[in-house]
Amino acid sequence: MSTAREDLLAAGLAVFDRDGFEGATVAEIRSRARASNGSFFHFFTSKKALAGTLFLEILQAYHATIISSVDASCGAGEGVERLIHAHLDWVVSNRREARFLFEISRSEWGEEVRGAQRSENSRLTDGIERWRAPLLARGELLPMSAVLFFSQIVGPAQIFCRAWLSGRHTGDPREQVETLIACAVRAVVAPGAPERTGETS
């Protein structure tokens, strides 16, 4: 059974998705959640505070999905494939959350949100580096910074995702997955790298 806080967050997500951040009101969020004014302000000091909390919770869920997609058994190419599939599958399966995360959220929600976001981004980097570092050491992935590596993996896929989330493109972003994987492999995987950890080329 959901709690009043969860109901307010779910209502906020639905109202932000429909009306945008500027168009959303506390009254509409409360009405959708069937929550009193006092209940809303017990959990959140403002619409911005609710939006910031929602952003961080969605970001954590997205990062958890990405981190869990790779492990020590994945070779370089297989890991790249899993990361791209994980990103695309999460966006398509969680369209409302993805739209809020990538299309609606904004930088002026406060230093508290930005600080927590930096911590979350560090957690994502650490999770991927646990898989990537041994492959880098063996020369199976091309040397580059963690930020550049992740941008090569998710950046091109994100272009299709944003077009789909905004309605500019109606095709499922996963339709492009094989091409996206092939391009990412060429960008980050060393020629001749084995498909799985422990294989010899």
UniProtKB/TrEMBL annotation:
Disulfide bond as UniProt keyword: no
Domain HTH tetR-type: 2-62
DNA-binding in keyword set: yes
Superkingdom of origin: Bacteria
Keyword annotations: DNA-binding
Pfam families per record: TetR_N (PF00440)
DNA-binding region extent: 25-44
Xref: InterPro entries: DNA-bd_HTH_TetR-type_CS, Homeodomain-like_sf, HTH-type_TetR-like_transc_reg, HTH_TetR, Tet_transcr_reg_TetR-rel_C_sf
Name of the protein: TetR/AcrR family transcriptional regulator
Organism listed in the record: Bradyrhizobium brasilense
